[in-house]
Amino acid sequence: MKFELRKGGNAIKSTPISWSGGEDKLTWVHSRSGNFTVKSGYHLAFQLTEEKDRGQDSSSSKLNSILWKKIWNLKSPPRLKHFLWRIIRNAVSTKENLFARKCARSPICGLCGAEIETIEHVLLRCEWTEEVWANSGIEFPRPVNKEVSIKKWFVNLLVNWGGQFMERMGLIGQICWAIWKQRNEWVFLQQMPNSKVALKRAMGLHGEFLAANCSQINDAVIESDCQPLVNMLQPKSVLKNWTIQAFLDDISSFSANSSFVFSWCNRQANRCANWIACNSRLGVGIPLAPCNIPDELYSLIRSDL
Q1: Which part of the chain is the RNase H type-1 domain (predicted)?
Q2: I need a surface site. Which of 20, 185, 197, 208 has the fewest CB within 10 A?
Q3: Of 277, 261, 263, whose CA–CA distance to 218 is shortest?
Q4: SS3 for the chain, per residue?
């Protein structure tokens, strides 16, 4: 029976046959060893993406390149930069992505039920999300067209803001992170999102990070009652914990240009700091004026004297 090989026929015919009589085997041509690795797969995907971008007009391709440089040079924690990279690449577990991988029964947003839960919907168009941006006090063009991706939105902000992009993008990133955190708390803990809480968290984290970077403290001893954390923060430590690695990277980046020493202390000697940290996580503002110190904190301070 005669037949023709329609696709790849010439390539198959031109493949040299081994004279040694060895068995055929599958080979990954994008690595020297011939074996597939995640690294080689990532480089191939990145190369294909670049080739696709080069197919766009030159101005668009140039803006995309500038955007990536701006994102990685933001004065923000590494965790936040990585998150921005993930949402631009749509590499987050939205219901749209989970449904496509047969990990969710429906792609529709469970909070509003209005449309498919894309990353653009989560961060920009969901009902409670719109309240966050409306109360943020930031004036910027939000995409109305559902076809506009997060990446295109960021590029538009880059064009509109110009030299102010770096300054404003840090806060935009923190708000996006706070929205995503609230969305996950609803998914996993059944806690309804609160636009005021999300905005307060974002503003607080952004302000604290800027204040810490602007401080003139270059030599300090930072105490913690968590021994494993202190051990992992030591200069030559090889200990790793992927569950908190993002926070370790944040701390390391903050202390990179300073002579900070991380030391362990007993929890009983760290009760004031523990009280402030716990209440800060709950969104309770801690007054700085001595006359307004909460009674519970005041009692802890007196007991330490």
Answers
A1: 215-277
A2: 20
A3: 261
A4: CCCCCCCCHHHHHCCCCCCCCCCCCCCCCCCCCCCCCHHHHHHHHHHHHHHHHHCCCHHHHHHHHHHHHHHHCCCCCHHHHHHHHHHHCCCCCCHHHHHHCCCCCCCECCCCCCCECCHHHHHHHCHHHHHHHHHCCCCCCCCCCCCCCHHHHHHHHHHHHHHHHHHHHHHHHHHHHHHHHHHHHHHHHCCCCCHHHHHHHHHHHHHHHHHHHHCCCCEEEEEECCHHHHHHCCCCCCCCCCCCHHHHHHHHHHCCCCEEEEEECCHHHCHHHHHHHHHHHCCCCCCCCHHHCCHHHHHHHHHHC
Residue 176, token pair as written in the block: 């996006």
Comparing CA positions, the residue from 51, 72, 73 lying closest to residue 61 is 51
Q: How confident is residue 298, by pLDDT bands cut at 50, 70 and 90?
A: confident
Report whether 117 contacts 108 (CB < 8 A).
yes
Question: What is the C-alpha to C-alpha distance for residues 40 and 73, in angstroms, rounded to an integer?
Answer: 26
- 125-137 per-position pLDDT tens digit: 999 998 999 898 8
Largest CA distance in the chain: 97
Q: Which of 207, 251, 202 is nearest to 226 (CA)?
A: 251
Which residues are within 8 A (CB) of 64 and not within 5 positions of it... i.e. 6 or more apart? 53, 56, 151, 155
